[in-house]
Design brief:
The structure holds 2 protein chains of 2 kinds. Chain A is an alpha+beta fold. Chain A contains 4 helices and 11 strands. In chain B, strands 8, 9, 12, 13, 14, 15 and 28 form a 7-stranded mixed β-sheet that branches. A 6-stranded mixed β-sheet of chain B has the order 40-41-42-39-33-43. In chain B, strands 45-48-49-44-47-46 form a 6-stranded antiparallel β-sheet, with helices on one face.
């Protein structure tokens, strides 16, 4: 048993797609996720360390900064969600080593489901639950917000628009709430035609 | 054709109106079939079929017709649709006609034309204002048993469907620079000027066609008809990508911070909503600025028989004629005190409807109007009034008194009345702004609108179309500019000339028959006079005493008449009497729209563990634990009672091995150089001394000294602990710790984060548990008793996945908790079951867990109930004397330190076969069951499969000192009285030998 492989399971069950294609959704799989909080008085050193190691400026506001396959989203004062596109559950440990002793890191690779949503009607669909202004002028590429949707706490950030010019967002929420979120999302997006896609785990 | 429909002749004009004659629509009213056209409202279609009698009034069951052509309608309330979609009290004046519409009249029995309840009208002297207060006072014993049921039977209007609503509802959150409320002339002008500046604009209009009065009146703007101009304006707005036009949308409330509530009737005009379309949508709109362009509401005149079907608002008559091509009668009269209503006469005559007379209460009237009337052959009388009306169920005759005192009867079937216009300021008053009286405008206007709101057009008392357009345009531009838009100059559309002179006129004092002030609540002029006589002279008291303006129409047409009557009776000016204000909603909002997506299973979110799917496959029965669903037990085929299943699960855990999903327990990562010092502060016992690789049981108190939660903390590094909480208290404990970190001890270097969702955690309990882990984990971890003794913890990598193993036990057995990142939780439980198959592994649920913890005397939520102290629970010695901790000082209060406080004990039924019940109170044998003799209560009970009888935990005075004593567990709720023996709370394996395997 000890030599076998544990397969990871997505947080979200694929919903029923409709015609229309106004909205697409899929779950990002195999992500490395970790929360990172500054140790007392280590703020400046932590910023330098992150800059030096990941070549990015740690966001000091509700925003997401990316460099390569790493991103940091500001989710509170001195508090970030760090994302690696493929490092999975080992990311937390490696990040901890990189930032020690300047920050506390906790693996959250299983704690959150991260969903990528896009499409020409995505803002109209999200407006049925997000009580924040996602208009392109109010919520620019790289903006992030930690908010409530359908009584579920989420963090949302805006990605670069898709090649077809449609807006694209990623939404992180507690894994255990993924089914309730998807119940809200699928009923909100159905009128536009929701295309449920899968992304193979790396 | 039925008898009912036979005498009604269609009254549709051959041409004109904003209806689509190529699309006839069928509908039924009280079971009779009729037809109308696309573009009709139910009211226009009924009038188009010659139907004037539409409902019965609330109190007196008087025949009522259609008074208005808008959302202010007090009379024409009908039940719409049938079956699960049946909805009462819809206003026929705003119901958009659709093919297959079914409507029923309300508040009548057995039929609309013959209504037994109309006897109330004869008894009306008894039903005056204050009837309930004066009548149902004595005896007090009748209040609940007799009066309330009787009043409840009489109360209410219409019948809601008892079935579940088959439609969906949703909410929408929108943001804009400028919100324009109302799509009439002012609103359209405002939206156009704001929209052209590039600002984000939302225009809401309750109608399905934009234009407001422009569609009902015969006006010209810029050389085209008013309705054509409105149509072109709406096309221009639709073409602007920064403007969103919401038709069929009522802004119903104004809230703090520029927040507005609106309801969009997405599918109310359809027989059945289209697939995935909601019936209604609730909008929460946050706007930097708002332009209130809600227009004005025409007021009626209070005179005898003014509620008879056939008596209508003058503007409504014009709307039915011009917008729907429906003349509301065959021979008309006009009763007014303002120029505006004369246009009704001219429009009717222009459509070939004879106008018998214009009765104007003014003695001086603009000669241009009287000359035009005379040219058209309309008789006019100045300084005259209508005394009363006659007709059984609709209007036949009016009785007119002229200035010289002569009274004559005139046969008409339509009386168009107008007492002038009241600016519609309801929304502007939601945040407390109080309108003040303007003698010039004979109405209440707003001097200080709420922050961020501008009032424009008729809502501000600007009744001339040219003024309305100019004000709307300016308000839209100013709002856009204030919100950051760049305003462009554009030419203002020119409106034709009009007459708007008006003299306030409220009621006909000479009328002797019943004269209605509030149609929906049947408040008459006599009720106002009675209120004045009895001292209810303030408008607020008048409202509550007579229920004036308290119906679902909020008195849109009636309030001001009532206030004016009160002013006249008490000899005060309108400015002294003042006005009541409104609160949301402006018009009724369906509960479904407020609930949106959140009903049924989606009422609140549900959290599922990573092993949920597996548990479902194993046939688990689930129970709600906070937001979580947890497996309660896993019934096997043939097990028909839950207790059989639970007892089997307990025996198998204690005999072999079982596994339980404990992922829902709260888990908090506590990190930082001062993590230990921080935990010392929040727990009653010491944690800074806990060695790395060890777990300790801990107890937290609230500030008030009572127990908040219990759990464990494991130390993985000098600066890293993992705290566990109960499932129910996880959120509360996290808040409590954050408060302690941020507010109480900000100087400490400590960081907190919830990792509840990150770790999928399974408890493996039973004598074979070590064997199972050895098979499952192989070389990944050393789980020998030396490497991992009781209350030890390790971190290791298993199948390239970080894993944690804790040797803790809630069941009293040799037990471990294995934690893996949640994405591997499903694979882990399946692997565990596979590895344990030969060992006889069984899954067990929360019930078996509960039985085993009661057998071991462990406290849980039933005992940690917010009323117990550490000492009550037998955990007093855990409270460290070497340090301070939250709750320490207040735990020493005399009340909490009282040695007589009920404390934890175990109980067994004296007759071992008896069943125990939680919640029963302890009484001495022979004592009377009263509060004075109460000694405590039973907190938890279970059937112990190991002892083969019921056992329980409880809190009783001087508990630990009374072991062996017999008391009664008295349960009046279940009508039981059982003798129990007080025993140690540890029923099973008191030495704890099983823990060590």
């Amino acid at each position: 048993m000890a030599d076998s492989v544990l397969s990871s399971r997505p947080a979200l069950d694929i919903g029923q797609s409709q015609h229309g294609g106004g909205v697409t959704i899929y779950e990002l799989r195999g992500l490395g996720l970790a929360t990172m909080q500054t140790r007392k008085g280590q703020h400046a050193l932590l910023r330098d360390r992150i800059k030096q190691h990941f070549l990015l400026d740690l966001p000091m506001s509700p925003a997401i900064a990316r460099a390569g396959e790493i991103a940091f989203a500001g989710i509170g004062p001195n508090y970030w969600l760090a994302i690696s596109e493929s490092a999975g559950p080992l990311f937390g440990m490696s990040l901890r080593q990189i930032v020690a002793p300047l920050a506390s890191v906790s693996d959250q690779s299983g704690g959150y489901a991260v969903l990528r949503v896009s499409g020409h009607a995505i803002r109209d669909a999200l407006a049925k639950g997000f009580q924040i202004d996602l208009h392109p002028r109010a919520f620019e590429v790289g903006a992030a917000a930690t908010t409530i949707v359908a009584h579920i706490g989420v963090t949302i950030w805006r990605c670069e628009d898709n090649a077809d010019g449609n807006a694209c967002f990623e939404i992180a929420l507690y894994r255990g709430l993924a089914k309730s979120f998807s119940s809200w999302f699928s009923s909100s997006a159905a009128e536009f035609g929701c295309d449920w896609q899968t992304q193979a785990a790396p | 054709m039925s008898a009912a429909a036979s005498y009604m002749k269609p009254r549709r004009l051959p041409k004109g109106g904003l209806i689509d004659r190529s699309r006839p629509l069928n509908f039924t009213f009280d079971g009779e079939r009729y037809h109308g056209y696309a573009g009709d409202t139910l009211a226009s279609a009924l009038l188009g079929n010659g139907i004037k009698l539409v409902g019965r009034s609330f109190k007196y069951h008087r025949p009522r017709g259609i008074l208005t052509a808008g959302s202010e309608e007090p009379n024409a309330l009908v039940e719409l649709r049938s079956g699960a979609r049946r909805e009462p009290n819809t206003r026929a004046t705003i119901v958009e006609l659709f093919d297959g519409l079914e409507a029923q009249s309300q508040n009548r029995w057995p039929s609309l034309k013959f209504d037994v309840g109309a006897v109330n009208s004869v008894l009306s002297p008894f039903f005056a204002a204050g009837f309930y207060y004066k009548t149902f006072m004595w005896p007090a014993s009748f209040w609940e048993r007799v009066y309330e049921p009787a009043i409840r039977r009489a109360a209410g209007l219409g019948r809601a469907s008892p079935e579940a609503d088959p439609d969906i509802y949703e909410k929408l959150y929108a943001f804009c620079d400028v919100l324009v409320i109302g799509g009439g002339a002012a609103g359209l002008a405002a939206a156009l000027s704001a929209g052209r500046s590039g600002a984000r604009v939302i225009l809401c209009d309750e109608d399905y066609v934009l234009g407001g009065r422009l569609n009902g009146d015969n006006r010209e703007i810029g050389g085209e008809s008013g309705s054509a101009w409105a149509h072109h304006a709406s096309l221009s707005l639709d073409a602007l990508s920064n403007v969103r036009v919401l038709r069929r949308t009522t802004v119903f409330g104004v809230y703090d911070g520029g927040t507005y509530g609106a309801v969009e009737r997405v599918s109310d005009h359809l027989l059945v909503p289209a697939s995935h379309q909601p019936r209604q949508r609730l909008w929460k709109i946050v706007a930097k600025r708002a332009v209130l362009a809600t227009g004005a509401i025409e007021r009626h005149i209070v005179f005898g028989g003014n509620d008879r079907p056939g008596v209508m608002m003058a503007s409504a008559v014009r709307t039915y004629l011009n917008r729907f091509a429906v003349p509301a009668g065959r021979r008309a009269a006009i009763f007014t005190g303002c120029d505006d209503a004369w246009a009704t006469a001219f429009d009717l005559l222009g459509s070939g409807i004879p106008v018998e007379i214009i009765i104007d209460m003014r003695t001086e009237i603009d000669s241009r109007l009287t000359e035009k009337a005379s040219r058209l052959g309309i008789r006019t009388v100045a300084g005259a009034r209508v005394l009363t009306t006659r007709g059984s169920q609709d209007l036949k005759t009016i009785s007119v008194r002229t200035a010289d005192g002569q009274t004559s009867d005139i046969e008409v079937d339509l009386l168009a009345m107008s007492g002038g216009w009241t600016p519609n300021l309801a929304l502007a008053t939601h945040l407390g702004s109080r309108p003040s009286w303007s003698d010039t405008l004979a109405g209440f206007v707003l001097n200080t609108p709420p922050r961020g709101m501008t009032v424009a057009g008729a809502a501000q008392g600007s009744f001339a179309l040219a003024d309305t357009l100019r004000e709307g345009d300016a308000a839209g531009a100013a709002a856009a500019e204030a919100a950051g838009g760049a305003v462009q100059n554009h030419p203002l559309p020119q409106a034709d000339d009009e007459h708007i002179s008006s003299k306030p006129f409220w009621y006909v004092a000479e009328s002797r028959s019943k004269a209605f002030v509030d149609f929906q609540h049947d408040v008459t002029s006599n009720d106002i006079a009675l209120a004045a006589r009895e001292g209810f002279q303030s408008v607020e008291l008048l409202k509550r005493y007579t229920t004036l303006g308290m119906a679902t129409d909020q008195g849109k047409t009636s309030n001001i008449n009532g206030h004016a009557l009160m002013a006249q009776i008490t000899g005060r000016r309108m400015s002294q009497v003042g006005t009541t204000v409104f609160r949301p909603p402006y018009t009724p909002v369906a509960i479904g729209a407020l609930a949106g997506h959140h009903r049924g299973p989606a009422f609140k979110p549900t959290r599922l563990t990573a092993g949920h799917r597996w548990a479902e496959e194993c046939g688990a029965t689930f129970v709600e634990a906070g937001q979580w669903l947890r497996a309660q037990w896993f019934a096997r085929p043939g097990e028909t009672h839950w207790l059989t299943t639970v007892s089997r699960e307990v025996r198998e855990v204690r005999g072999k091995i079982g596994v339980c999903d404990v992922s829902t327990l709260g888990k908090i990562d506590v990190q930082g150089n001062d993590a230990g010092a921080f935990l010392d502060r929040v727990y009653v016992n010491m944690f800074s001394t806990l060695p790395i690789g060890k777990v300790r049981y801990g107890l937290m108190l609230r500030e008030d000294g009572l127990v908040m939660d219990d759990g464990t903390a494991a130390r993985f590094a000098a600066d890293h602990y993992v705290v566990s909480t109960t499932t129910a208290n996880a959120g509360k404990v996290m808040q409590h710790l954050e408060h302690a970190r941020q507010v109480l001890r900000p100087e400490l270097d400590v960081q907190l984060v919830s990792v509840t969702e990150q770790w999928s955690q399974y408890s493996i309990a039973g004598p074979h548990s070590r064997l199972l882990l050895a098979r499952l984990l192989g070389d990944a971890a050393d789980i020998s008793d030396t490497a991992l003794p009781y209350l030890g913890c390790i971190e290791f990598s298993w199948c390239n996945v970080p894993a944690r193993l804790f040797r803790v036990s809630f069941s009293g057995e040799l037990a471990y908790e294995l934690a893996v990142p949640a994405q591997f939780g499903d694979a882990t439980i399946r692997a565990m079951m596979e590895a344990g198959r030969e060992l006889g592994i069984v899954p067990y649920g929360t019930e078996a867990l509960g039985v085993m913890r009661i057998e071991k005397g462990h406290v849980a939520s039933n005992e940690l109930n917010g009323m117990t102290t550490a000492t009550d629970l037998g955990l007093g010695r855990m409270m460290s004397r070497k340090k301070d901790f939250i709750g320490r000082v207040l735990a020493m209060r005399p009340g909490l330190a009282d040695p007589e406080r009920p404390a934890l004990i175990g109980i067994k039924p004296a007759a071992r076969t008896a069943r125990l019940h939680a919640g029963a109170h302890f009484l001495a044998v022979g004592a009377k069951p009263n509060m004075g003799n109460d000694q405590g209560y039973v907190t938890s009970v279970a059937f112990s499969p190991m002892l083969e009888h019921w056992i329980g935990l409880g809190l009783i005075k001087n508990g630990p000192a009374r072991i062996g004593e017999i008391v009664r567990a008295y349960d009046p709720v279940r009508n039981r009285d059982t003798e129990v023996e007080i025993v140690s709370p540890i029923f099973f394996d008191p030495e704890g030998t099983r823990l060590h395997g």
